[in-house]
Description:
By secondary structure, the protein is mainly α. The protein has one domain (10-95). The chain has helices spanning 9-19, 36-85, 91-94, 101-104. The chain is elongated and about 105 Å long.
Amino acid sequence: MAESTRVSPEELERREKYLRAGLREVNLMDPFTWSYPLKGAGVMVAIVPRLIGVAVMGAVGYGMGSLREHHYKTRDAVIQHYIELHPKDFDHFNDRCGRPFSQILLPWYPRRTQYTKYD
């Protein structure tokens, strides 16, 4: 090797110590200088609030679903009670035959482009 590329043993030792884990001075802005427990602490700290958040959101969703179900049950009970109190107003629902669809639906005249007449 040329003399210009030769590195002193002190420089080699300094470089090796710099690259080995745990031997560099701790810098808060450089996560590669943190110890291994501190590197995983962020994940462990972040997982607990997320689990609590998921549990809270699940409980809120379950509660809202229960409230919605209660609301619809109450509404149906009120409507059923009203129908029982005023049966004459709802006799047309009991008629199984009812009106034919020809009286309900409007006439439909298909206008298709393939049947257009050209003059």
